[in-house]
């Protein structure tokens, strides 16, 4: 009785938990979980399916440069999406520690999103465990699923990075070297990977994504060395294979992302009664992988202006922004 009071339970708590879980399955997973299965079987399938959705979600976030900003368990829907759309941000200048929320810290930073997701998944599994307490086999199966989360996440992330780089197989050394040069050079995340998708002949084609001038000869040498290694790995022999790989990479690397300074301008115009910028942004962001007119490209396929760095509401937001 004392334990029940401490946990704020009541006699129907377990039954209510079962009803909630069955409602979740019916609402979000009815296409993949058969209603004729036993409760234990449904829970095991649910954990597997949610793990698959959650790991895919976070992998795609990082692929397109999205940082949720506050991805704790109460903002992580059990259907495999997020409930909290703020304070989020799309990364511009690449930084693994990028975080647009002033109170977010490292835990919810750009490259730490898989770790935040794992913590959320552990919370999810702990909520399911009471329903399996009388079935040792099912409980062990759930714990196995919980323990394989990091492996599933890592595999998806590695496959994603391989796709972004046009590689058939993930190459840690090549990836690690690139990330370090990107940080040291200060590159625009979206523009860099899109320009790389053109399979450039030399470094000058990538400079469109650099926030600073390449004055450091050492960094130039590092870039040229990396590009040579990358070209060996992608193994493009002729114009046809180059075009094929380029098209493939462009399906993975978007050309446009929702940059905060474009949004700020659009809603300020909307306040004046001019909804054209909002409509234009909506049209572009509905098809972010497509090439647009030269006018649209000059307007929206551009690095963040230096004046906008460090500005509240553009570079960072509070929880109530």
From TrEMBL:
Its cofactor is Mg(2+). Keywords: ATP-binding, Coiled coil, Magnesium, Metal-binding, Nucleotide-binding, Nucleotidyltransferase, Transferase. Pfam families: SelO (PF02696). Residues 128-155 form a coiled coil. It comes from the Bacteria. InterPro entries: SelO. The keyword Coiled coil applies. One of its GO terms (molecular function) is ATP binding. Belongs to the SELO family. This is Protein adenylyltransferase SelO family protein. It comes from Arcobacter sp. AZ-2023.
């Amino acid at each position: 009785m004392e334990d029940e009071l401490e946990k704020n339970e009541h006699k129907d708590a377990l039954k209510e938990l079962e009803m909630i879980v069955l409602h979740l399955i019916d609402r979000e997973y009815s296409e993949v979980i058969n209603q004729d299965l036993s409760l234990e079987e449904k829970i095991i399938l649910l954990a597997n399916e949610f793990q698959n959705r959650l790991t895919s979600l976070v992998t795609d976030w990082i692929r397109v440069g999205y940082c949720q900003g506050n991805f704790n368990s109460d903002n992580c829907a059990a259907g495999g999406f997020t409930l909290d759309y703020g304070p989020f941000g799309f990364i511009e200048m690449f930084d693994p520690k990028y975080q647009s929320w002033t109170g977010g810290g490292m835990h919810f930073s750009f490259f730490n999103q898989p770790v935040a997701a794992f913590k959320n998944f552990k919370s999810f599994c702990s909520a399911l465990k009471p329903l399996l307490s009388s079935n040792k086999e099912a409980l062990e199966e759930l714990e196995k699923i919980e323990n394989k989360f990091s492996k599933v996440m890592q595999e998806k992330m590695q496959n994603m990075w391989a796709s972004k780089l046009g590689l058939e197989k993930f190459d840690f050394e090549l990836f690690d070297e690139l990330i370090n040069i990107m940080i040291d050079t200060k590159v625009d995340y979206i523009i860099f990977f899109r320009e790389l998708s053109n399979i450039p002949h030399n470094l000058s084609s990538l400079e469109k994504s650099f926030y600073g001038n390449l004055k450091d000869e050492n960094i130039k040498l590092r870039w040229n060395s990396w590009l040579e290694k990358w070209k060996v790995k992608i193994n493009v022999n002729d114009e046809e294979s180059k075009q094929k790989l380029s098209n493939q990479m462009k399906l993975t690397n978007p050309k446009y992302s929702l940059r905060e300074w474009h949004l700020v301008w659009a809603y300020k115009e909307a306040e004046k009664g001019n909804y054209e910028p909002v409509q234009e942004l909506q049209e572009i962001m509905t098809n972010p992988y497509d090439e647009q007119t030269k006018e649209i490209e000059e307007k929206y396929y551009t690095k963040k202006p230096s004046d906008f760095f460090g500005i509240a509401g553009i570079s960072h937001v509070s929880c109530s922004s």
